[in-house]
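Quick one: structure tokens for this chain, please?
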Amino acid sequence: MKASGRLAVDTNAVIAYREGISEVCALIDEADVIILPVTVLGELLYGALNSAKAEKNEHIIQKFAVHSLVMQVDEAVATRYANVRFDLKKRGNPIPENDIWVAAACLELEVPLLSRDGHFNFVNGLKVINWENTGGI
């Protein structure tokens, strides 16, 4: 499946890309613009710092970020975050806090998210591309 246009990436997608998972590499390489939510960048940098090869891993992440559009958190994203979190709470479907920020950024930019995390499916209006599902979506 071709993810032409803009595609946002979750932390696990960037890791899978680095590991050379063919489905992920194809989706990322075929996209016109890769969007890296700043929350995902923070998670990746934390992982690098927490690794045995911190400097090398941080360099790899920075190189990926240079070739991506880093999506910042602004007032519009904060408003989306509040609405998404409230909706998830009302429906009894909480998801990890950082992932609410990632979803809010994707919703604000109206871009699909490449992730294998099934809990993103609880976010109304978010298009998720899961490379582990047959058919890709």
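The chain has a mean pLDDT of 93.
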